[in-house]
Amino acid sequence: MLFALLLAAVLVSLAAVGRGVLSGAAERERITERALAQAREALVAYAAERPIDGIVGPGYLPCPDADDDGWAESTCGSLSGHLGQAERLGRLPWKTLGLPDLRDGAGERLWYAVSTRHKGLLNCAASRECRDMSPGSALGTITVRGADGRAIQDGTIADARLASTGGAAAVVIAPGAPLVRLDGHAQSRSCTAGECDPAGRCLPDPPRRAARCDPLNYLDVAPARAGREDNAAFTDRTDARGANVDGFIQGPVAAPEGGLAVNDRIAVVGYADLMPRVLARVAHELANCLRGHAAPPVPACAPGEALGHVPDEALDGGTCNAKPADPSWWTAWRPYVLYAPGATGGLEVTDEQGRRILAGRRFAVLASALAGECLEARHACDATGCTRVALAPRSRDRHEALVTSP
Predict the structure, then answer these.
(1) Rounded Cα distance, 324 and 289, in Å
(2) The pTM is what?
(3) What pLDDT, in 10s, does the model give residues 230-265?
(4) Both 80 and 163 in a single domain?
(5) Cβ pair 313, 352 in contact under 8 A
(6) How crowded is residue 89: how many other Cβ atoms within 10 Å of its Cβ?
(7) Quick one: 318 and 398 in the same domain?
(8) What residue numbers bound the domain in which 53 lies?
(9) Is the pLDDT score of 396 beyond 80?
(10) Are residues 61 and 186 located together in one domain of the fold?
(11) Considering 269, 285, 309, which residue would you say is the last residue of a domain?
(12) Per the structure, how many domains does the chain have?
């Protein structure tokens, strides 16, 4: 009887320990997922809400933090991506993004890679290609694979009609606990004398020569059955997209002999995440420019119809960040924005089923991911103005934003 009681007590204790292990792992996973989600939202907000001017508009993301001081570097590779590839992978620049010092469930800071198409550079004003972040151009270049090795974001895609499944604009990576990589490299995350200053900032040039700033010590490589994808290195170019098959793989991925080959967790910032927010920012900017102006729209749709592009006369205000002549981000965006002045009784906005959302609007600005779109049957306009504009059905592959003025 005593033996049976002791055995029962041992089994209860073992069960409690097991539950504690499981709950600890689940809590670490929750911490990781929360950190990744927070970082992802901060990046989307940065692209859509960062200060802009008449030359450089919205849509850009910061360069990575190369030396682990929390701040984005001022540059991270060439415009086409053929130079400086390693500079586009580093720590998440949490200070630049206004975030707390985010850590994953293993207590590690997050890593971050940015597409060469979306990296924000100090000299963007000098190049039309760099300034052009319009929907037809702002396709991501980073390939991301699921744990089985199949691409879920394809950085080789250059067709704007397929942008939502195309390359990622950025990835955020939670590195997890150190592993021995499948190439035999034992991950070491120390910060030895001479490699880091007292604050932990990596001192070598380039900083990745220090163990703390070397992606090999944090990011993992997949086995052959998952394509041998190595998260410590990637390729992304706009001029030779065929090379962009080399990207990142989502963990966990099992090692052939058991255990984990990849414990990295990845959050993706894709076209479908960024573009709706950037379109909304552009629509708000143009609505600000149009307030106080009565100039008719530039004809772009049906003849004699008061629906068209924003007139240059509306862009001369001191607070207007859309300028009618180069160098200006607006030059590339012009075909994607429509202006609908309200008729005498005002403009009504409805949903796709025709239900009224707003009434008595002075005008509407619609920014769409489709260049030259004229709303087809979704508007009612004549030569004197517009009485109705309907929202489009929601879709992951169709993006637009509508802003009105009272």
Answers:
(1) 11
(2) 0.91
(3) 999 999 999 999 999 999 999 999 999 899 999 999
(4) yes
(5) no
(6) 25
(7) yes
(8) 30-269
(9) no
(10) yes
(11) 269
(12) 2
